[in-house]
Write a structure and sequence with these properties.
It is built from ten helices and eleven strands. The chain is of the alpha+beta class. The longest helix is centred in the last third of the chain and has 27 residues.
């Protein structure tokens, strides 16, 4: 994540709605990737180039979004909120609070997708990327669904609203014997399922994918059933980033994709805050050379505060190769993806 500043010069953060220094209202303009300020009675946010931006409707009605959209845009929702297909019932303060957290994590994902030049509509006949945030009877006995699984199907990423509840998520994490489970991690993982067909078309790219991750044509449902019944492949830690990645090649891709986004965003933050002095590089091995010792230091600092490791993973040579493959596929797709994103 970049460092952002208010017009007054004070550092502000990606989730801020106002400046603690000058008191101005703040909004993030995703095109130029800057924060703009306004003061009542102004309704619009003015950029230095004179362009006017308006607040997202979800800010005005629910204070659930701090992004902006061009004042002349006929839509009321920003580039992130217009991807929503279903939002939860906002009749309770609890649901509103959880939904705000969910939107916050989603905006971080969309920020990364924009940075990478990835379209939210592929233009190849596949469905557009959309989101559903749903409840089930574990949190709301009045809904019809007894169990909502977080996942991806036909372009729709579904997130169970319970994942935004820290206590509930921790309980599931303990039940699943996971060392890492976050709301942002879910978004990043599921987005990997969406982009995999676009980034790995049939041909040499798909052949290379199968060499690294395995054959994705293996029966997915049977593989997942076996994983949940028997646990991960005993050799997972030598070739996969997580136990779940060993369940099926498509899950291996999605887990590795999530880590590519984790690492890329964390390195951008480290550079923006001065923790890393070396400039960003297209050499992915060089980037990993910075990330691995940085992650060790991050874990040690967390332990000094009595916290769990923020990054409890080991990047083995096979995982390095998989991350490198994702980097190569993104580089190969970037010109077309960037052009598609610009056209929208």
């Amino acid at each position: 994540m970049k460092r952002f500043r208010c017009a007054c010069g004070l550092t502000v953060f990606f989730d801020d709605y106002s400046c603690t220094g000058c008191g101005a209202e703040l909004g993030y303009a995703p095109g130029p990737a800057v924060f703009l300020a306004r003061r009542p009675p102004q309704e619009l946010f003015l950029a230095p180039d004179g362009r006017a931006w308006k607040p997202c409707r979800n800010r005005l009605e629910h204070r659930a979004c701090n992004w902006l959209l061009p004042a002349g845009d006929p839509l009321d929702f920003c580039a992130a909120c217009r991807l929503n297909r279903t939002i939860p019932n906002l009749g309770t303060e609890h649901n509103l609070r959880l939904w705000r957290r969910t939107e916050q994590a989603k905006r971080r994902l969309v920020y990364s997708l924009i940075n990478l030049g990835l379209p939210r509509e592929t233009g190849d006949g596949r469905p557009p990327l959309r989101f559903e945030f749903l409840e089930d009877q574990r949190s709301n006995p009045d809904v019809a669904e007894s169990l909502v699984m977080t996942g991806h199907r036909a372009g729709i990423i579904t997130i169970n609203l319970l994942e935004a509840d820290d206590v509930a998520r921790h309980v599931v994490r303990e039940q699943m014997a996971e060392r890492y489970r976050t709301l942002l991690g879910h978004f990043r993982h599921e987005s990997g399922h969406y982009y995999e067909p676009m980034l790995v078309p049939p041909g040499s790219a798909r052949d290379a994918y199968r060499e690294l991750f395995g054959d994705e044509r293996l029966d997915y449902d049977a593989a997942l059933a076996r994983y949940h019944a028997e646990g991960p492949d005993p050799s997972w830690n030598g070739r996969c980033i997580s136990p779940y990645a060993s369940a099926h090649p498509m899950e291996d891709w999605a887990e590795t994709w999530a880590h590519y986004l984790h690492i890329s965003d964390a390195l951008e933050t480290a550079r923006a805050t001065g923790l890393i002095r070396e400039p960003a590089s297209d050499d992915w091995e060089a980037e990993l050379g910075l990330w691995i010792p940085g992650a060790v230091s991050l874990n040690e600092m967390a332990r000094s505060l009595g916290l769990d490791d923020p990054y409890p993973f080991v990047i083995t040579p096979p995982v390095r190769a998989k991350l490198g493959f994702i980097h190569q596929r993104l580089a190969a797709a970037r010109p077309d993806a960037a052009a598609a994103a610009a056209a929208r």
